Amino acid sequence: MALGRMRSTTTTLVVCSCMALCCLMIAAATADHQLRVGFYSYTCPNAETLIREAFDDAVRQTDDIGADLLRMHFHDCFVRGCDGSVLISSTKGNKAEKDAQINRNLEDEAFQVVDNAKAKLEAACPGVVSCADILAYVARDSVAHYGGGFYDVPAGRRDGRISRASESTSELPTPNLRLGQLTKLFAGKGLTQAEMITLSGAHTIGVAHCPSFSHRLRNFNASSGTDPTLDAAYAEQLRRKCPTARSDNEVPMDPPSELGFDNSYYQGILRNRGLFTSDQTLVSKPAAEAQVKLFARNSGVFTSRFAAAMVRMGSIGVLTGGNGEIRTNCRVPN
């Protein structure tokens, strides 16, 4: 009888211990509805490794894919918050964000990277890692791949179910915005002007299409054919790349280092070689110009501040805890 009671007590202790461990794991997963580094340590320990494998596979095939992935995370966060809504496909009754004009140049190969990462994660730990978190991780991996440095990504985002093209049109910055307009737009997302200038540094990688800047090259206004804030020699190079206003050719956003995440973007702005109006406008006021000059001469400061600004941006309007869902297919709500 004594032996039987001992077994019963031991069993009870084991059960209680298991329940306590489960409670700790659940608590770690919810983290009081806040994002945190190491969010998947218990529930999917290899999550970041699997996502990085999917990214590495893609970048071996398409060396500039990371620029689109970084842009996708930005476009996701500025519309409805960082909820993976940019990944949702359109349906017969709804035109989704990814099909808005401003997102048309996002390559499908970039969406495939997220799909492939999700497939790996669903095989390893089904129903655990959100599509929104995958986007945050591959954006970080993109920055690191091109030389911008590795930074920790707080996770715990959940996925939204709504995606509307019209909201991308109204919520995302366009290439022709001026400093005041950019500052106001970013302030509406809880980001400072300094963070806006820092995040603009993402233009150090990737390409743009002629229609996004061709208005600066010809018939700019009544007194000038070319935007006077654009370096004349650079303008001539761009005209050759874009022989007409409707040319859809691609042009590097930062020609000296198209696939290098560095501070040459800011050095170009100081030489009046910002490709977009929204780039060159960053030196239109003394305080903003001072930050551009700081980044232009100190790549380490830019890199560290960019990482911090990405973490801040990645927390915009997130769904956590019991809100949202974990999509099984990133292109379709459950």
Proportion of residues in β-strands: under 5%
Give the overall shape, derived from the CA principal axes.
Answer: globular
Biggest sheet strand line-up: 1-2
Mean pLDDT: 90
Number of helices: 13
Q: Gap between N and C termini, in Å?
A: 53 Å
Helix-strand category: mainly alpha
Radius of gyration, in Å, reads 23 Å
Helix content: 40-55%
Q: Largest sheet, if any?
A: 2 strands, antiparallel
For the secondary structure, the number of strands is 2
Given as residue ranges, the uncertain stretches (5+ residues, pLDDT < 50) are 1-32
Order of helices and strands: HHHHHHHHEHEHHHH
Structural overview:
With 334 residues, the protein is mostly helical. It is built from 13 helices and two strands. The chain has helices spanning 2-30, 47-61, 65-78, 108-124, 131-145, 165-171, 179-187, 193-199, 232-241, 264-270, 277-280, 286-297, 299-313; strands spanning 207-209, 250-252. Strands 1-2 form a two-stranded antiparallel sheet. Helix 8 (193-199) packs across helix 13 (299-313), helix 10 (264-270) crosses helix 12 and helix 12 (286-297) crosses helix 13. The chain is globular. The relative contact order is 0.15. Mean pLDDT is 90; it is low at 1-32.
